[in-house]
Inverse folding.
């Protein structure tokens, strides 16, 4: 009864509710070089399977073992009850790959299957029955996805590598940081370099995978089916928890080390007291007895900046030195230190980096890194006997105490009234009255800035600026203002 | 004339009258104390406080509570309206969580528009060196208000998502405390008015962080309004968070165990836990400065032994976790939407859920990384560097899990999905620009520069703004019963994404080269003019794209295609309901029998109706 059929190819029925499984297996079987297998149907329910069985009478039924929809117990029960010679292969794609079971009223392990098939063919149809190597089918079938994914993994990895290389190359080409002008900037820039590379890699990794997914795993038009049901992967999750953990601990460790490097003290630094006020900087050299509005530093000598504020919080930042330190009000307790060793002669600027009111943007002062000799020459010039002329002295004080950050001497409107021509003039006050700007008025305005407010200006001059001035200095200043006709 | 009898108008009238009464009261008190009656700051503060209370009484949101105090019964808080939600519901008090969610949402969009406008103003000013049309004082006020109004826009937007979505996603009919919910929304309105009134009451010039002693400067009365406004806003946050926690714990549908919760609910819960426990600290720190201003209590006055660093600790103890309030919600939206458009389960659901809790927890131990250059004890910087870096671990889990979700999926690219993808890439940029700030040594260069501005705008856009926009597009059909215009949505996306990348990357670049934050004018010697032109231009592109977004939302209300009940073929509960959502969410009780994201299992069931046990007892 089976002779006629044996002359043709083997007739196979594939039962699975997963179209990918069924179609994949079919195309594999059809690709067999001997062409001795014909797939007579793909079915996805037990009822369909029974119909097809009756209609096409296949020789072999391959059942997806892992299919939760397809009830294998039920179909096996039906097949056992049926007549005719029929082999059933239960094929598992699960990780327990050796559970492919061939059923003809017995079940056996994968390793026995080929033997059994051989025997079976020997007994029944020595010449004509093809050997369907279960191992081949199974490995072909269980791995096409894995093999496909391998292709995907490799392509995506290549994309990530290219993106990483391109971004690191790109970042390398552009200037990302200002001139490196301090010794402390060296380890900091080294750390920046490492961080930029890690950032470039991680950005390329995720964006690369995203771009790859967007291009490759896009839904075809009209396809309403879902993708494969994958809920997660414990090993991967653990990996991508632990790997970043190790990375950030490593970066933190480096960060702590670099921070330590920037804090190393020299035994004999040059000490400079930096005083921030709204909105000017003042620099005092206690050992040299100099006060200035420009920060002059000798090259290659560590300077210990002792920072304090007379009013609100400021922040000392010279971008070329890389480091920043807030400048706090509150007296001696709140003095903060910053150590810098300038290594490049040049002109920089200290800029206030903490919002401190309306003059914040312009709260900057020149920072001049000089050769040791130039620095010494400057110190000598500053410590030379002061001028006999009170006007010249007043000019000096007004610069040293930073008055001219707000008060111009050329008539320009500033945050405070200009000094040009103010002496002896009639001043309109905010309360509507008028006063003559004589010696006493100016004295009061310096010592107690809030007493009389000029119309159009606010009471914002810090009273403590003048607290540091001697009476003689104030008199010099008034003489200087008087000279500005 | 109907509009005049709405709760909103009644509340506003109440606020005006209340403010006047409060000011009068304070004048009287000062007069009786023998003081000069008119002193602007105390008089305005007391007036404003009265105004807020009068607003709440005026809206009638407290009516039921007042009745309970008197021992009167009130009917159950129920939703009585025909969907979709219209102007009538939005302008009046409602106890329905969907209406409140929409009210939050619209308020947030208005706040964003205002704050965005401030940004455009000062960005235009910054287009070239030298002052163009602002004076530094106005500039400082605009940047400060841009910051704080955006933050409150975001918090209100978080409220929108949590209120609208939480009950729907867990199968509940409303929040646990509907009246409290309405109260928490409405109090935002007078708070926003207080905050914006700073514009006309002297301005503020210390940034949204308002560090004293600058913010204690009595010359700027705007600060008093600012502190009061933030304080009232904080109240809303705390009450809203309380409600979300209670709702999530108590009102889940039968069978919805912890790991069957939609992932957004996990992030809402994590968010609410932060908001409930941390918001007090910003309230406290601002209250202390306010008391310093009003009563001369010298908490932070260095001249009287006050400590300026103490404020920063208190302030950042809230304000850093607050960042996670913003982004956790947004990241929840990304995780929620991604499986729908990838047609695959969320990869590593439990890991993503736990990573939200992890971020929330670690978020409490990192605040001092804002203070590496502040002058706090130097050694403290190292432990805070380590703790801050740890945030990267749970955040990394999210990114990798999203990549895992996309891998091998069947992605489609409707507007919400585009914004989800944009959000991931931008948040990645924001996240990766974080570690250089967290590392003390490099932060000493980066702190208070445009790098930081670029960094946190990227985290905010990626972690909040893009997901929020995605959420609005995604649930628009559920809210209005109509589809938004897909073409306009795509134009919006393809303008906003490159606009943002240009803005943020150029900001970071300028910061590295020495551009300080919050400066009204910059030194041409820095050579950053082209960069500033680019940033400003990109800002306008973003603004224009947002304008398209608004037009789309408004026009589609009437012109949009009528929406199907489940346009995205989502498995989520609310998409099994009709569009627009019915007033009563789940009139047929449901139970949860499966997993929320089982895409790819054709017969997997998530929920099923509970058969009424005794139909006869129904009447």
């Amino acid at each position: 009864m089976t002779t006629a059929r044996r002359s043709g190819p083997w007739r196979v029925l594939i039962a699975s509710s997963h179209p990918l499984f069924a179609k994949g297996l079919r195309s594999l079987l059809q690709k067999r070089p001997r062409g001795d297998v014909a797939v007579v149907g793909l079915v996805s329910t037990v009822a369909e399977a029974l119909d097809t069985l009756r209609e096409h009478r296949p020789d072999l039924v391959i059942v997806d073992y892992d299919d939760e929809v397809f009830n294998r117990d039920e179909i096996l029960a039906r097949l056992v009850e049926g007549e005719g010679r029929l082999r059933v292969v239960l094929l598992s794609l699960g990780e327990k790959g050796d559970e492919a079971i061939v059923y003809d009223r017995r079940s056996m392990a994968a390793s026995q299957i080929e033997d059994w098939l051989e025997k079976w063919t020997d007994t029944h149809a020595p010449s004509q029955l093809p050997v369907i190597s279960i191992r081949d089918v199974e490995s072909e079938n269980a791995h096409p996805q894995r093999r496909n994914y391998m292709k995907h993994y490799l392509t995506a990895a290549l994309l990530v590598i290219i993106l990483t290389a391109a971004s690191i190359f790109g970042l390398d080409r552009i200037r990302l940081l200002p001139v490196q002008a301090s010794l402390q900037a060296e380890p900091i820039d080294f750390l920046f370099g490492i961080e930029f590379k890690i950032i470039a890699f991680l950005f390329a990794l995720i964006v690369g995978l995203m771009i790859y997914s967007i291009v490759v795993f896009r839904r075809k038009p009209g396809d309403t089916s879902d993708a494969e049901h994958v809920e997660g992967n414990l090993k991967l999750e653990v990996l991508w928890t632990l790997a970043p953990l190790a990375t950030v601990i490593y970066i933190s460790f480096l960060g702590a080390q670099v921070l330590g490097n920037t804090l190393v003290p020299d035994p004999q630094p040059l000490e400079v007291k930096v005083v921030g006020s709204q909105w000017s900087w003042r620099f005092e050299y206690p050992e040299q007895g100099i006060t200035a509005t420009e920060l002059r530093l000798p090259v290659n000598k560590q300077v210990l900046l002792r920072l304090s504020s007379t009013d609100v919080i400021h922040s000392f930042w010279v971008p070329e030195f890389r480091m920043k330190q807030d400048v706090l009000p509150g007296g001696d307790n709140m003095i903060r230190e910053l150590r810098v060793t300038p290594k490049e002669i040049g002109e920089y600027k200290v800029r206030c980096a903490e919002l401190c009111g309306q003059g914040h943007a312009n709260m900057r002062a020149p920072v001049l890194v000089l050769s040791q000799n130039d620095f010494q020459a400057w110190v000598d010039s500053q410590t030379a006997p002061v001028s006999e002329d009170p006007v010249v002295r007043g000019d000096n004080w007004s610069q040293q105490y930073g008055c001219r950050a707000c008060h111009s001497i050329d008539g320009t409107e500033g945050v405070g009234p200009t000094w040009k021509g103010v002496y002896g003039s009639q001043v309109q006050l905010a309360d509507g009255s008028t006063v003559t700007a004589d010696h006493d008025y100016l004295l009061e305005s310096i010592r107690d800035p809030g007493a009389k407010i000029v119309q159009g200006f606010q009471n914002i001059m810090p009273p403590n600026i003048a607290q540091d001035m001697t009476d003689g200095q104030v008199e010099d200043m008034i003489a200087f203002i008087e000279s500005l006709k | 004339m109907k509009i005049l009898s709405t709760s909103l108008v009644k509340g506003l009238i109440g606020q005006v009258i209340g403010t006047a009464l409060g000011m009068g009261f304070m004048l009287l008190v000062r007069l009786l104390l023998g003081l000069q009656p008119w002193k602007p700051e105390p008089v305005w503060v007391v007036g404003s406080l009265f105004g807020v209370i009068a607003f709440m009484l005026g809206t009638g949101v407290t009516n039921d509570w007042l009745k309970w105090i008197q021992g009167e019964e009130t009917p159950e808080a129920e939703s009585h309206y025909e969907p979709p939600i219209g102007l009538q519901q939005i302008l009046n008090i409602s106890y329905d969580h969907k209406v409140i969610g929409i009210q939050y949402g619209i308020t947030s969009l208005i706040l964003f528009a205002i704050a965005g406008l401030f940004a455009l103003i000062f960005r235009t000013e910054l287009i070239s060196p030298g002052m163009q049309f602002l004076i530094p004082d106005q500039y400082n006020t605009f940047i400060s208000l841009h910051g704080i109004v955006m933050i409150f826009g975001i918090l209100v937007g978080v409220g929108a998502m949590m209120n609208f979505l939480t009950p729907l996603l867990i199968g509940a009919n409303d929040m646990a405390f509907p009246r409290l919910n309405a109260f928490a929304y409405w109090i935002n309105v007078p708070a926003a008015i207080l905050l914006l009134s700073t514009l006309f009451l002297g301005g503020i010039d210390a940034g949204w962080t308002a560090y004293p002693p600058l913010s204690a400067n009595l010359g700027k009365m705007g600060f008093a309004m600012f502190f009061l406004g933030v304080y009232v806003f904080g109240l809303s946050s705390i009450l809203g968070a309380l409600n979300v926690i209670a709702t999530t714990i108590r009102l889940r549908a039968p069978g919805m165990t912890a790991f069957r919760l939609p992932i957004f609910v996990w992030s809402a819960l994590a968010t609410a836990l932060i908001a409930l426990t941390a918001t007090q600290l910003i309230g406290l720190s601002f209250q202390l400065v306010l008391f310093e201003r009003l009563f001369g209590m010298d908490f932070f006055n260095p001249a009287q032994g006050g400590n300026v660093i103490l404020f920063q600790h208190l302030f950042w103890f809230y304000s850093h976790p607050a960042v996670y309030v913003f982004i956790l919600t947004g990241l929840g939206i990304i995780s929620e939407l991604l499986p729908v458009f990838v047609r695959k389960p969320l990869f590593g659901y439990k890991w993503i859920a736990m990573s939200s809790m992890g971020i929330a927890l670690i978020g409490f131990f990192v605040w001092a990384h804002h203070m590496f250059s502040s002058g706090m004890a130097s050694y403290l910087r190292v432990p805070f560097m380590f703790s801050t870096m740890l945030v990267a671990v749970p955040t990394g889990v999210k990114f990798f899990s999203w990549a895992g979700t996309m891998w091998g999926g069947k992605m489609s690219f409707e507007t919400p999905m585009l914004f989800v993808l944009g959000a991931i890439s931008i948040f990645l940029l924001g996240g990766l620009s974080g570690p250089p700030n967290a590392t003390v040594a490099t932060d000493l260069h980066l702190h208070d520069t445009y790098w930081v501005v670029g960094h946190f705008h990227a985290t905010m856009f990626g972690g909040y703004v893009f997901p929020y926009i995605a959420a609005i597009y995604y649930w628009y059909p559920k809210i209005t019963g109509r589809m938004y215009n897909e073409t306009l949505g795509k134009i919006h996306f393809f303008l906003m994404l490159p606009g943002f990348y240009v803005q943020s990357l150029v900001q970071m670049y300028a910061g590295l080269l020495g551009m300080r934050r919050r400066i009204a004018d910059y030194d041409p010697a820095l050579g950053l003019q082209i960069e500033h032109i680019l940033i400003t231009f990109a800002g306008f592109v973003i603004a224009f794209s947002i304008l398209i977004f608004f037009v789309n939302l408004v026009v589609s209300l009437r012109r949009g295609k009528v929406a199907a009940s489940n346009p995205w073929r989502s498995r989520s509960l609310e998409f099994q309901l009709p569009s627009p959502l019915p007033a009563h969410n789940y009139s047929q009780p449901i139970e949860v029998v499966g997993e929320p994201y089982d895409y790819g299992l054709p017969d997997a069931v998530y929920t099923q109706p509970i058969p009424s046990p005794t139909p006869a007892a129904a009447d």
Q: What stands out?
A: Residues 321 and 364 of chain B are 6 Å apart (CA to CA). The beta strands of chain B are 590-592, 607-609.
